[in-house]
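Notes from the 1:1 (GR / supervisor)

We went over the backlog. Supervisor wanted to see one worked example end to end before approving the batch request, so GR pasted a single chain during the call. The sequence is below; no edits were made to it. Supervisor asked that the structure be written out right there so they could see what the output format looks like.
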Amino acid sequence: MSAPALVLDLFAGPGGWSEGLRSLGLRDVGIEIDPAACATRTAAGHTTIRADVAAYPTAPLDGKVSGLIASPPCQTFSAAGLRAGNDDMDLCHQGLDDIARGSDTRPALRAACADPRSLLVVEPLRYALDLRPGWIALEEVPAVAPLFAHVAGILRGIGYSVWTGVLNAADYGVPQTRRRALLLASRTRTAAPPEPTHAKDPGPDTLFGPTLAPWVTMADALGWGATDRPVPTVTAGGGKSGGPEPFPSSARKALMDAQRRGSWVLHTNRDQRPDGNRQTADPHGAPAPTFTAKAGSQWVLRHSNRRNATVRRADEPAATLLFAKASNDVSWEKEGSAGPESVRITVPEAAALQTFPVGYPFQGTKTRQFEQIGNAVPPLLASAALRALVSNALEAAA
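Structure output shown during the call:
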């Protein structure tokens, strides 16, 4: 009898993990509660069950799941949220221990949490223990790493090989220095992190072949290297009901002209520094050089309407893309003596920086589309993480 072929994707979102699997020739079934994300998945051809992961029963899936994927909602643990998850961390650890002992205390723990969503981080373990899939892949913001380490200990106790740690998406070809905690587990193989394909400083070639490729830049991802390539435009407008391109053609033309001169930077929000400088955090912990804009020539991408923001040049990867309530403020901005000139970032631009395929059919209002992009796993990171775990299935399909 062949092994069950179902890959179950919890908190499936618009399909970041699904696209990663699809690139490997496999498919999943996603459980997702958000109607806009479900509509996106359906439009993209991904099988979806619209349901609450925390309320969905595991019994009907018993014996049918070969792989388990999960990216629990990160808002309560992320820098973009209120970090209520930090206050709820002990309750989440208790929930993991209780589930491992076969005691379902989730209702009481959820009621005690500062934000009930925090406890969703324990759901993947419930599914894993009930279904015992061949492999498991979990992803979250780095703040959840201690909880993933806890899950790893429980899984090792029942026979899984487990690796957990924090990866930088830029090391796998994603044009963002997006850092995420991952847990990879297998019942049949030694779990290990995926080998990086890119590096900030690849170094010279060796006798054994080329070194890693350099990080992919925003300009690379958006196709801004050729002078005859236009800047992408919005085709559905910025309002909830669509409409014409919401920015004057002169602004989009000025943006394109600046791009051709190589004067692009990405500007993302950060709390104001006491000295007023714009500065970004390097993915390895050291601050990147502060970029000083030249009047009338520099464009930045700003995540909010605050004065100070992280700055990235177009010849660098973006910082982590975050789209929340202020997504309407995410825009390319030209800073000069005459004041800023703004052109809002488009959904296709944001999707490209997240490595979704060109034309990916995001659904819902413009704000909901941006939120889906920002919350998704970059498909390129997903495929890198999954490749070794799903190798048995790939060999069987060959």
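Supervisor's comment: Residues 6-201+373-397 form a domain with the Rossmann fold fold (CATH 3.40.50.150).
Batch request approved.
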